Amino acid sequence: MKKFLSLLLTAGLMLATTPQAMASAPISRIKDIADIEGVRTNILIGYGLVVGLNGTGDSASSIPFTRQTLINMLEKLGVNAKAAESQIKTKNVAAVMVTAKMPSYARQGSRMDVTTSSLGDSSSLEGGQLLATPLIGADGNTYAVAQGAIVIGGYSTQGNAGTVTKNHPTAGHIAGGATIEMETGHELSDNRRIRLLLRNPDFTTAMRLKDAVNKAFKEPVAVAVDNQTVDVAVPPALRNNLVPIIEKIENTYVRPDTAARIVIDEKTGTIVMGSGVQISDVAISHANLNIRVSELTEVVQPEGFSDGITAAVPATEIEVDEDAAEFTLLDSGANLADLVDGLNALGVTPRDIISILQAIKSAGALQAEVVVM
């Protein structure tokens, strides 16, 4: 707990919220805080078969679609597999989902990585070979075809009395395993403007980004549309050569602004406080109340030479411990470091800190957004 609060204290000292400290806050390149509209990856997905497994594939009785897919594939290759459908075993075959991210402006014939994940009850994809699998986009069109040897980076071995597994053997990766067969059709030269999209929408950051771009080009080419969008006009003479313009924009530095925010993950007890957190006059008192209930069994013995019998009687003991409460005062205008000092003085646990922060917010003394995950 002391280590946790000391980390918060260090963060508070580094993220002081005075105007002088904000003026010296770290700056970032535009490429690190904003995306360019249209320059994006495209999600592809496909269904395929992995063959060549060493008895670790899907069971035919539990996973019927693996057998059905195998029969359909063999039929297309001219093999009459339906005649012996009941005799086909799938212990060396596994049905998988294949996923990939197609890079922006990927050209026909270029390659990309794919990930395979088991759909059935296969215990391992080790040594498997993915057969040709079409990868489709959200529009239903096939953009790539994947095939190749799967690398899982682990293994699974079992015996009669135990199993040894390393990493995750039912998911694998194929480096350069897919070939682009169709392009998206969007060309960078089709853009009549460059639209920058902030990853963390903020009006102040949008204005600073606009000013930085105008300063870099020495003319008012950028306009802040909203808290996420900044439009950059491209002169007609340069529309066929946008790469140098984008390169100049991406490497322009901006000091992004951040809202005062506290993020709480109660499941893990994690608390992250951003800069700009301010505290009004508030006094905090927190005491721990511990209640322990013990269920005991007492044995009652009868008196000698009596007709009584030995009996077990339940007994309950309840102990209540409550720590003494002490008030900690935070003056108006207290910043993140002061808040951490106050929590240190109370000597509370992360779970107690969550309750205290929510109580301060409810009292109207915390000038920050509290986000509970």
Explain how this protein is built.
There is one protein chain. This protein has 373 residues and is an alpha+beta fold. It folds into 3 domains: 27-38 and 187-254; 42-180, no CATH class; 261-372, no CATH class. It is 22% helix and 35% strand. The chain contains 8 helices and 23 strands. It has helices spanning 2-14, 19-23, 30-33, 64-76, 203-217, 242-250, 336-346, 350-362, and strands at residues 28-29, 34-36, 42-51, 93-102, 111-118, 129-136, 142-149, 155-158, 163-166, 171-180, 193-198, 222-224, 229-233, 253-254, 261-265, 270-273, 278-279, 282-285, 289-300, 311-322, 327-330, 366-367, 369-372. Strands 3-4-5-10-7-6 form a 6-stranded antiparallel β-barrel. Strands 2-11-13-12 form a 4-stranded antiparallel β-sheet. It has a 3-stranded mixed β-sheet with strand order 16-15-23. Helix 1 (2-14) runs antiparallel to helix 7 (336-346). The model is unreliable at 1-23 (pLDDT under 50).
